[in-house]
Amino acid sequence: MKNRFTTLAVAVLTLCASTALHAQSPKVDYPQPTAAMQAIIDKDIRRKFGDAPEDAGPLAKDLSPAITKKDIDKVLRKVADWQLRRTMEYTDQIWTASVTYAGFMDASKATGDPKYRDAMLKLAKGFDWTLRAGQYPNADDISIGQMYLDLYLQEPSPEKIAVLKKYLDVLIDLDTLRPNDPRLPWWWCDALFMAPPVWLKMAQATGEQRYADYVHEQWKKTYDLLYDKEEHLFARDTAYEDPNKREPNGKKIFWSRGEGWVMAGLAKVLDLTPKNDPNRQFYVQQLQEMSAKLASIQDENGEWHAGLLDPQAWPLAETSGAAMFIHGMAYGVNNGYLDEKTYRPVIEKAWTALVKNHIYADGRLGGIQQTGAEPAHYRPSSSYNYGVGGFMQAAAELKKMAIK
Predict the structure, then answer these.
(1) 306 is a domain residue
(2) Containing domain of residue 315, as a range?
(3) Contact 378, 56 (CB under 8 A)
(4) Phi, psi (5° rounding) for residue 25?
(5) Cα–Cα distance between 319 and 206 in angstroms, integer?
(6) Domains in the chain, number
(7) Any idea what DSSP says for residue 304?
(8) Residue 6 belongs to some domain of the structure
(9) Active-site residue 190, yes or no?
(10) Most buried of 195, 240, 265, 307 (most Cβ within 10 A)?
(11) Residue 201 lies in a domain
């Protein structure tokens, strides 16, 4: 009898241990990063963009993916609070951080909680409202201007945008990235998120239309350079238009986060462009075409992969792109540019996947690919500040759908 009870006790303990392990980070089979990919991961971690622990702990069990104000607010706060602690430890003016700052500004507005906005004001003052760039800052370099302009538009004060305006006034007269560099100012698709909101908000702040005109001129040049009118997606840059550069399955390389930058950028440009502006339809058409394409390649779990047209080669879901797809589609539905019956299910599936599969108990958002220009491998726990910034902006737009 004693042996029977001992055997039963061991079995119970084994089951409990197995259950506890199962409650930790989900067991997922995935390819390991190559040496070159790992070098980028290590560099990103050294630069305090984020991290990728082997075990990030259990997934969150206290969140609902329901599209309600209360539930979205809870998700947004949980992720934002986790990121805010990390952000305030390591401040920087680099683009990876500035995307996060823009996310906190949106989180503050969406939740009504001033602590996120107050933290950004503290950072901006610490940076003395400056950029990290040299004489000719690129789109990444000026992206911190989104935060400066948001703070200015809430409480105007000249010093908040003086340095930024000085740089924009230099750039506006250039036809290329910089003197003696023939590339377009926005030669890579990421730039369509980083720069346009800065220029359009400067137009709002100053009342000068020339800043908005610059956006429409440059976006059209980048569109002509990078937009694939067959696939309805953007090449990350001209290197990916090379017919010899292909996914393992032979299809063109379209990168999740690259398309995400454009989708969220379209939402921002449309939000900042007057309703009667003749340029609007140009952006609406791109939003509609890209949304239709992305909806058609969403997987059965509601997710997308780092290489959009070859999910088998990149089996892990990629969340930074997914969040920005939600941002763009939610904006389209909220403003009547996308059919709600068609796209709400796409958005709901994507949001459910993010909330259920990628947010950890402490608030970490995982599944974010490290920096780069093309698909790569990473751990399920990978979390980087720019991906969280995009997620916060998406949640803020999604909350408007709940209000709608």
Answers:
(1) yes
(2) 60-403
(3) no
(4) -50, 135
(5) 36
(6) 1
(7) -
(8) no
(9) yes
(10) 195
(11) yes
Instruction: Name the active-site residue from 106, 141, 150, 190.
Output: 190
What whole-number distance in Å separates Cα of residue 321 and Cα of residue 290? 13
Alpha carbon of 52 to those of 75, 260, 310, 377: distances in Å? 21, 21, 24, 12
| 77 within some domain | yes
Say if CB 109 and CB 101 are below 8 A apart: no
Cβ distance 72 to 398 under 8 Å? yes
Is 161 in contact with 202 (CB distance < 8 Å)?
yes
Q: What are phi and psi of 360, to 5 degrees?
A: -90, 170
CATH number of the domain that residue 228 is part of = 1.50.10.10
pLDDT in tens, the chain (404 residues): 434 434 334 343 333 333 333 344 455 678 999 999 999 999 999 999 999 999 999 999 999 999 999 999 999 999 999 999 999 999 999 999 999 999 999 999 999 999 999 999 999 999 999 999 789 999 999 999 999 999 999 999 999 999 999 999 999 999 999 999 999 999 999 999 999 999 999 999 999 999 999 999 999 999 999 999 999 999 999 999 999 999 999 999 999 999 999 999 999 999 999 999 999 999 999 999 999 999 999 999 999 999 999 999 999 999 999 999 999 999 999 999 999 999 999 999 999 999 999 999 999 999 999 999 999 999 999 999 999 999 999 999 999 999 76
394, amino acid identity = A
- One-letter amino acid for residue 377 of the chain: H
Instruction: Output the six-digit token pair for 90.
Output: 């390591």
